[in-house]
Specification:
By secondary structure, this protein is mostly helical. It contains seven helices and no strands. Helix 3 (about 50-75) runs antiparallel to helix 4 (about 80-95), helix 5 (about 100-120) packs antiparallel against helix 6 and helix 6 packs antiparallel against helix 7 (about 150-170).
Length: about 180
């Protein structure tokens, strides 16, 4: 106990920034939800044939609605049809590798959890690990799907999401050692 008092008196221990506390709480909630969901995805196994059929039917219904809208409005919606086709391929690949996909998401979430915890206790290495996690978050779609079948907007949105969080956490780098 005396060592702790000497350390705090000698070093002038700075309090954890409130912004870092808020970011960490939000991250812990998000990561916890991801861990919970992916864990049950791993132990639950693949969806049933009936559930897979329902998903396929929903994609077919969406394609049909796009075709009707395109013909009635005389607007070229082939771009959105292509996006929908790629989303269906991505979804099918995820379902085909359901347990492995969820195991990957679970490992990435545990990696992110450790990175956020390290930042929370003031370790700068946590920030660098978090940047690595954000990169993995962006490329996770490529693990089970060919790059030509991954919609660009998914990569763009994941990149924007990761960059925003990295920028928010970078505001606390001065405090981390």
């Amino acid at each position: 106990m005396e060592e702790l008092n000497e350390m705090t008196e000698g070093q002038g221990f700075e309090k954890r920034p409130k912004f870092l506390l808020v970011l960490a709480i939000l991250s812990f909630i998000n990561i916890g939800t991801t861990i919970f969901t992916s864990f049950f995805g791993v132990i639950g196994g693949k969806p049933s044939a009936k559930e897979l059929e329902a998903v396929a039917l929903q994609f077919a219904n969406s394609q049909e609605q796009l075709a009707q809208l395109s013909s009635s409005k005389s607007v070229d919606l082939s771009y959105w049809s292509d996006i929908l086709t790629k989303m269906e391929i991505l979804s099918n690949n995820m379902f085909a590798n359901f347990t492995m996909y969820n195991a990957l998401i679970l490992m990435m979430a545990l990696f992110a959890l450790s990175a956020v915890y390290l930042m929370f206790i003031g370790r700068k290495i946590g920030f660098h690990l978090y940047v690595g996690y954000c990169f993995l978050y962006v490329v996770q779609s490529y693990f089970f799907t060919a790059p030509k079948d991954v919609p660009t907007f998914i990569i763009v949105l994941n990149t924007i999401y990761g960059v925003i969080w990295v920028l928010l956490y970078s505001r606390n780098l001065k405090w981390m050692k």
